[in-house]
Write a structure and sequence with these properties.
With 309 residues, the chain is an alpha/beta fold. It has helices spanning 3-20, 39-49, 73-79, 96-103, 150-167, 172-192, 194-200, 212-219, 237-250, 263-273, 293-308; strands at residues 32-36, 53-57, 83-86, 115-117, 204-207, 222-226, 254-257, 276-279. It has 2 domains: 18-190, Nitrogenase molybdenum iron protein domain (Rossmann fold, 3-Layer(aba) Sandwich); 193-308, Rossmann fold (3-Layer(aba) Sandwich). Strands 2-1-3-4 form a 4-stranded parallel β-sheet, covered by helices on one side. Helix 2 links the parallel strand 1 (32-36) and strand 2 (53-57). The longest helix is centred in the middle third of the chain and has 21 residues, at 172-192. Bound molecules: zinc ion. Residues 66, 138-139, 144-145, 209, 211, 231 line the site of zinc ion (ZN). Zinc ion binds at residues 66, 138-139, 144-145, 209, 211, 231.
């Protein structure tokens, strides 16, 4: 091999190295670029990543997560990403394949360490049910709203800690301490709302969407009925008549719903049953002031507790 050929060869290897060896070739000062589908995953990713990651999200907290319309510009964001983290269970099925195909980024392609289907570490509710997608059910693989239970949020933080550490081992100690600190903040916040939480146990309520099943598992609230006959299917008059009867029988005094559903229909049921409608943003950025996960959960717990007491 001539001297020049050796140099060319070395140069080519050097050019290829960052792409071929993302871990060993990583600049210690470069931040991991993390893109998430939802604001809740984004908030937990930035808590665990701290200044070692640059995080962004595709959906907004005030949008129905089932009907996110991503901008084409997100293809460019995904093209440069080191990590793509999403809820899974087909929540992003309407747009994710298109964006990932467009991004052509093997670091975040299915099977890569940077491809993080968060649902894989979660005990998913309503899975293995015979669901007919043609009937409009938007939870064909199980209930994807698992972040509404803090025990699942902890699992999300630990998954991010592990994946970020795998991709960026030089900062593993930081990811570990950030995750521990975040879980500590969550635990401290939970102590602050413990009395409210205790007051919710066993109380009958109605929810619009089955998203609140995880919240009910956390709080001990007893959901006696849903405004939707199936997840994603708007209520019919017959369904609502049955729900009114159930609410009266069970003594349910509260209807909880996300801001993006039809408030007037909930108000109508509330008038017929003497119940109150509570609009609870389920995500970070879902309303003014709900700027992080802990605040979203505190708002949900304390709002329902104040109404039920
Ligand atoms: Zn849903």
């Amino acid at each position: 091999m001539t001297h020049i050929r050796r140099m060319r060869c070395a140069l080519r290897l050097a050019l290829l190295a960052p792409a071929m060896l993302p871990v060993a070739g990583r600049d210690a000062f470069a931040q991991l670029k993390v893109v998430t589908s939802t604001t809740d995953l984004y908030d937990i990713a930035r808590a665990v990543g701290g200044d070692k990651v640059r995080a962004s999200h595709i959906g907004e907290g005030y949008e129905d997560p089932h009907f996110v319309q991503p901008k084409p510009s997100f293809i460019l964001r995904l093209r440069e990403a080191d990590v793509w983290a999403y809820v899974g269970l087909d929540l992003e099925i309407g747009w994710m394949p298109l964006l990932l195909d467009g991004a052509r980024n093997r670091k975040i392609a299915a099977g890569a360490t940077g491809h993080v289907n968060v649902s894989t570490v979660i005990p998913v509710m309503d899975a293995n049910q015979a669901v007919d997608r043609s009937q409009g059910d938007v939870h064909p693989l199980g209930n994807p709203h698992y972040w509404l239970d803090p025990s699942n949020a902890r699992k999300i933080a630990e998954l991010f800690r592990d994946r970020f550490s795998e991709l960026d081992p030089g900062n593993a100690a930081t990811y570990r301490s950030n995750a521990t600190a975040w879980e500590g903040r969550l635990t401290a916040a939970e102590q602050g709302w413990a009395a409210d939480l205790a007051s919710l146990k066993g109380k009958p309520i109605v929810a619009w969407h089955t998203s609140w099943r995880y919240f009910a598992a956390y709080t001990g609230l007893r959901i006696v009925g849903f405004m939707e006959p199936k997840p994603g299917v708007p209520p019919s008059p017959a369904h609502l008549a049955g729900l009114v009867a159930t609410m009266k029988q069970a003594g349910a005094k509260v209807i909880i719903m996300e801001p993006f559903y039809d408030r007037r229909t909930a108000d109508k049921v509330a008038r017929e049953t003497g119940a109150r409608v509570l609009v609870l943003p389920p995500s970070v950025g879902g309303a003014k002031g709900l700027d992080d996960y802990v605040t979203v959960m505190r708002n949900a717990v304390t709002t329902v507790a104040a109404a039920i007491r």
